Each structure stands twice: as C-alpha cells, then as structure tokens.
Amino acid sequence: MPELPEAEVVRRGLARWATDAVAGALQVHDPRSLRRSPGGAEALRARLEGARLAEPARRGKFLWLPLADADEAVVVHLGMSGQILVDEPGAPDQRHLRLRLPVIAADGAARELRFVDQRIFGGWWLDALHPDDAAGGEPIPATAAHIALDPLHPLFDADAVHARLARRRSTLKRALLDQSLVSGIGNIYADEALWGARLHPERPTERMRRADTRRLMAAVQDVMRRALAVGGTSFDALYVNVDGRSGYFARSLDAYGRTGRPCRRCAEEAVESLIVREPFMNRASHRCPRCQPTPRRRRAASAVAAGAGTVLTSGLRSEGSHPRT
DNA sequence: CTCCGGCCCTGCGCGC
DNA sequence: TGCGCGCAGGGCCGGA
C-alpha cells in the first residue's frame, strides 16, 4: 500500500504493537525481502533478537522501527505490494508471507509482525540513524537521507519546494514523483493533486509560478489528509492496514482510475468532460481535459536562455494548442 | 547536476 | 482451455 497516506496508516497501526515491544527471532521465508539489509538474514536476526523497539517513524513512503538505546533502525519499505500485518501466533500464513517477526508487546501480548509482499519490490533492512539538520535534527536512516520532507511534515515548506522546482527543466508530474524534491507522492496522489490544483501533468516546471506551487502543495496536503482520515486508498485486499482492513478513499478519487467517467468539478458546472488516461513513463496519468488543459508548447531554449519571463506570454498565446511534450 | 530507460518481481485480466 | 501481452500503488542504478 504504497503512498504516504497508506504508509502512515500502517505506521499508526504498528505503533500500538511495536512501541516498547521486545523482538524475538526473525523468520525469513524469502531472503529477497532482505536484499538491501547488510549481512542478510543472519545479521538482522542477530541484531533484532531480544532488542526493544521504539515508536515507528516515517518519512514519505519510508517507515522504520528504531531500536531503543541505539542509533539504529529496521527500515521498512512497502514497495508496490508490501503489507505489514499484526497477527496472533498460529494464525494461518499468508500466501506471500516473506518475513515474520515475533514480538512481545508492551502490554505483554505475544504477536507477530508479518511482512507480506507479492512483488518483492519492498523489503526490510538494518540501517544507522543520523540527525537530519534539515528536519530540526530528527533522526533519519542513512538510506533515506536523500528523501525530502513530505507534505505532512511539520517543517514542510512549499516555497522551498517551489525554489527547487522552478529551477528544473522538467515537467510537473515527473517532479512530483521525485522523492528527493517532495516525498510521499506516488501515481495516485500525483494525479489527484494535479486535478485538485487544475494543473496539467506535463506542464513545464520552469513555468510554475509561486502561487501555482503553493496551490499544488495545498492540494497534495488536502488529498492526503482526506485519504488518511478514511484509512487510505485500497483497490483490493492487497492494500490493507495492520489489521487487514481496507481504506475507503478509492471511492473519493477524482482522477486516478476514472478514465471515461465525468469530471466531478466540471459536472458541478453542468458541463460534461470525461477523464482521460494518457501514457506516462510506462504507466498512466489521469486528468480532465477541460479543467487541466494541455499547456502551451514549451518555450524555445533560446527564449529560456534569454531569461524571458512573463513578457513573452502574450506573444505565445496564439501557438498551437495541442502540442505533445 | 539532471534525465531516462531498464530492471528488480508476481499475478491478474484481456484478446486471440 | 491455454498462452502471451500489458498492466499494477516504487525506487535504484548506470549511462547519456
């Protein structure tokens, strides 16, 4: 269940069982889930057994279980299809069970933290925690040091994102999915936020104005908070919280997966405009062709080099309206 | 530095 | 019924 709201749902569910729990002997059903862990299964098992865990933390889509009294953590990434389930010992094994960590919870209850991952793009790994100056000195795993603050972080700064975004020579959705610019956004919430801010996914980043970025970041925060409030987005049983329950946000999506269905915003104005699905990086983008219109053709390199800004906009107005890329 | 494609995987639904 | 293909919520790496 991969984007920020789903990862946060998992973190919260995990907090009850993992915080102040004592870990038992890790069982590795598929070592590929430990690909990124130095020393593999042996090293992780040795480090974990008998260790006390602290409150689970998260940045963007990265989760981690800090080890109490040490600057180390078990990082958990769900990848495309990962789940963390909390089960009672003896509960039937899940089909794609990869890792099993028995714990004694703070209240003395015996439980198992199970990592279930169909595609094995996710995994667990042991990592060192370092203070992150950009985040008030809070700890961050070394392998997540390049991950930017996410839109729900208290220190998140939309204007700082804008400063970096506007300097890029790229397009908007690509930038939104770049976890080193702003983290936690994946294909679903990118499409939703772009719809919310009425922006086209292929809009050149250099053409973003501060107000555009602010509106877009506000849209990201809004959609993520709404998704979080209802347990995240689940299309099927593959994406569930630690109790195995699905979230309900799929029914509230405005763009993602709504190909051929009416744009809800346009419908409010009594206009029918159908959501389109377009190829994007071996995946797809979903948008409303009416309220997220195709941007004007990108400025020529010479115009950019000349530092031309808003002065040019009126002159470009008559250019073709449907150029691609 | 930035970018883009390829790759890491499994399973499902669809068309033939 | 079977098979190949395209597609799915992510991220890392190497080469340009």
UniProtKB/TrEMBL annotation:
Matching PROSITE patterns: FPG_CAT, ZF_FPG_2
Q: Name the coenzymes or cofactors required.
A: Zn(2+)
Q: Which residues form the FPG-type domain?
A: 254-293
The Formamidopyrimidine-DNA glycosylase catalytic domain extends over 2-122
* InterPro entries in the cross-refs: FPG_cat, FPG_Glyclase, FPG_N, H2TH_FPG, Ribosomal_uS13-like_H2TH, Znf_DNA_glyclase/AP_lyase
Tell me the SUPFAM superfamilies matching this sequence: Glucocorticoid receptor-like (DNA-binding domain) (SSF57716), N-terminal domain of MutM-like DNA repair proteins (SSF81624), S13-like H2TH domain (SSF46946)
Q: How does it assemble?
A: Monomer.
Q: Which organism is it from?
A: Micrococcus endophyticus
User: EC annotation?
Assistant: 3.2.2.23, 4.2.99.18
Q: Which family does it belong to?
A: Belongs to the FPG family.
Taxonomy-wise, where does this protein's organism fall, top ranks first?
Bacteria, Bacillati, Actinomycetota, Actinomycetes, Micrococcales
Tagged with keyword DNA damage? yes
Biological process GO terms, please? base-excision repair; response to oxidative stress
The record's CDD domains line, in alphabetical order, gives: EcFpg-like_N (cd08966)
Asked if the Swiss-Prot or TrEMBL record annotates the protein with the keyword Phosphoprotein, the reply is: no
What this protein is called in its record is Formamidopyrimidine-DNA glycosylase
This protein's source sits in the domain of life called Bacteria
Gene Ontology MF term list: 8-oxo-7,8-dihydroguanine DNA N-glycosylase activity; class I DNA-(apurinic or apyrimidinic site) endonuclease activity; damaged DNA binding; double-stranded DNA binding; zinc ion binding
Q: Which Pfam families match?
A: Fapy_DNA_glyco, H2TH
Tell me what reaction this enzyme catalyses: Hydrolysis of DNA containing ring-opened 7-methylguanine residues, releasing 2,6-diamino-4-hydroxy-5-(N-methyl)formamidopyrimidine; 2'-deoxyribonucleotide-(2'-deoxyribose 5'-phosphate)-2'-deoxyribonucleotide-DNA = a 3'-end 2'-deoxyribonucleotide-(2,3-dehydro-2,3-deoxyribose 5'-phosphate)-DNA + a 5'-end 5'-phospho-2'-deoxyribonucleoside-DNA + H(+)
Keywords carried by this UniProt record: DNA damage, DNA repair, DNA-binding, Glycosidase, Hydrolase, Lyase, Metal-binding, Multifunctional enzyme, Zinc, Zinc-finger
